[in-house]
C-alpha cells in the first residue's frame, strides 16, 4: 500500500510537469499563429500554465463536484449514510470526509480531494435506493481506500487538466480555420505553421485521452481488496458491483472526463468480461465481471 501511495504522489508531480510543458507548448503555438512575439508568448503561456496548475491542485475537487451536481449533506440530512461513512473512516484511521449527494437514479459513487484531510465522498440517490446497508458499506469502504491510497488526488487532477488541454486544442483548430480562410499570406513559413498547429490541435485530444488512461486501472483492484479488508465481508462489495452494473440507464451529469472517478464506469453496460486487449486499452475501469470474480475469490480464500 505504501509503495502505491508513493507511486501516486510521484505520478501527480509528473502529471503536473507534463501538463505544464505541453500546455506551454500548445499556447506558444497558438501565440505563433496569432502572430504574438516569442518572448511574450513564452511568458504568458508559462504564467497561465503554472497558475492553472495551482488552481487545479487546490480546487479541482470542488470543480469536479460542481460538474456532477453534488450537494454536501450533514448528519441531520441523512443520519444513516453519514454514520456509515463516519464509522468506516474511524476504522480505517482516516478523517471523516465531507459527504455529498448526487440526485441521479443511476447507482454510483466516487471520492475526490487532494489528500485525506481534504477529501469528499459523493453517492447518488440511486445508490442509496438500490443497495442494502451491507452493500453500501462495501462501496463506501472502496471509496475510502481510494482516499487512503491518494488515488483521489491524481484522479481528480486529470479531470481539470485534461479538460484544459482539450479546450486549447479546440481553440487551435478554430483559430487555424479562421486564419486559413481570412489570411492573404501565402508564404511557405505561414502555411507550415498553420499545418503544424492544425495537426497539434487534432492530436491534442488523443494525448489528453492517453494521459487520462495512463492512471493505472490496477487502482480499482487495490481499492476493492482494501475495501474488503476493511469490512471483512467480500460479498457486500461484490453484490453492490453486480447491482450497479445491472442498471440499464446512464448518469445524467457524468461525462467521459469524469467517468474514471466513479466506482463503476457510468457508461458501461452489464458486468460482462472484456477479453480483447484493444477493448481493455480504452477502458477507464477493469471489466466489472473480473472485479466481482476476484472479490469472491477473496471470500473463498479466507
Name the descriptors.
elongated; 302 residues; 11 helices; single chain; four-stranded mixed sheet; alpha+beta
Q: In terms of structural class, how would the helical and strand content be classed? A: alpha+beta
Largest sheet: 4 strands, mixed
β-sheet strand percentage: 5-15%
Biggest sheet, strands in spatial order?
A: 1-2-4-3
Question: What fraction, in percent, of the residue positions are helical?
Answer: 55-70%
Q: Please give the number of β-strands.
A: 4
Low-confidence stretches: none
Q: Whole-Å distance between the termini?
A: 20 Å
Shape: elongated
DSSP helix count?
Answer: 11
| Estimated radius of gyration | 22 Å
Mean pLDDT: 82
What's the multimeric state?
single chain
Secondary-structure element series: HHEHEEEHHHHHHHH
What does this entry look like structurally?
It contains eleven helices and four strands. It is of the alpha+beta class. A four-stranded mixed beta sheet has the order 1-2-4-3, sandwiched between helices. A hairpin with a 5-residue loop joins strand 3 (109-113) and strand 4. Helix 1 packs parallel to helix 6, helix 5 (133-148) crosses helix 8 and helix 9 runs antiparallel to helix 11. The longest helix has 32 residues, at 2-33. It is elongated and about 65 Å long. The mean pLDDT is 82.
